[in-house]
Specification:
heterodimer; A: 115 residues; mainly beta; 6-stranded mixed β-sheet; B: mainly beta; 7-stranded mixed β-sheet; 4-stranded antiparallel β-sheet; 50% strand
């Protein structure tokens, strides 16, 4: 079974600053996907960024980037130039490679962006 | 992308009753999943809704408590049966196409059992 661990229950960052959210996972799979999802107070789950394990290059999406360390089983999310709208719950998730698999989520990190 | 309509968005129910939650997708999808998110917690997979056959349940979830239907590739329902206050949670529908890794989510149903 795969486990996803987010060790930071809550974090706070000032607007325009940079923040890094941590995620580690445990798996015996060699091929898989990793995701960061955002859940604002509206409850809508939104994909922030995804990473294929077979790709060495770290994924980036505008202000969001990841540091993927496959050997260490670490997948951190960096948010640059934080904005008030980034305030949300952030979930790290794992998915096995192949069809038919669901996401396995970590416990989440609550991020507050302050003015 | 996929647009998901999940109904109801919230409900307050009496213990011992049942509630059926609907998930409608605007296009055909291969996979549909149901998750539970207890207050302040992460998302836990309840089951995979299989079209035309019985759902596949995760450990700790049983069909008698959470019957699921999926009559076609765009619609599924989750029923929470014989509810108790411990069932108070947000229930989310999620879909994914076989060729895509991104999962899309409904806005969830906030259920309160009193």
């Amino acid at each position: 079974a795969q486990t996803v661990t987010q060790s930071q229950p809550e974090m706070s960052v000032q607007e325009a600053e940079t923040v890094t959210l941590s995620c580690t996972y445990d798996t015996s799979e060699s091929n898989y996907y990793l995701f960061w999802y955002k859940q604002p107070p509206s409850r809508q789950m939104i994909l922030v960024i995804r990473q294929e394990a077979y790709k060495q290059q770290n994924a980036t999406e505008n202000r969001f980037s990841v540091n993927f360390q496959k050997a260490a089983k670490s997948f951190s999310l960096k948010i640059s130039d934080s904005q008030l709208g980034d305030t949300a719950m952030y979930f790290c998730a794992f998915m096995k490679y192949g069809s038919g698999y669901a996401l396995n989520f970590g416990k989440g990190t609550s991020l507050l962006v302050t003015p | 992308s996929a647009v998901i309509s999940q109904k109801p968005s919230r409900d307050i129910c009496q213990r011992g009753t049942s509630l059926t939650i609907q998930c409608q997708v605007d296009s055909q999808v291969t996979m549909m999943f149901w998750y539970r998110q207890q207050p302040g917690q992460s998302l836990t997979l309840i089951a995979t809704a299989n079209q035309g056959s019985e759902a596949t349940y995760e450990s700790g979830f049983v069909i008698d408590k959470f019957p699921i239907s999926r009559p076609n590739l765009t619609f599924s329902t989750l029923t929470v049966s014989n509810m108790s206050p411990e069932d108070s949670s947000i229930y989310l529908c999620s879909v994914r196409r076989e060729a895509d890794t991104e999962a899309f989510f409904g806005q969830g149903t906030r259920l309160t059992v009193v």
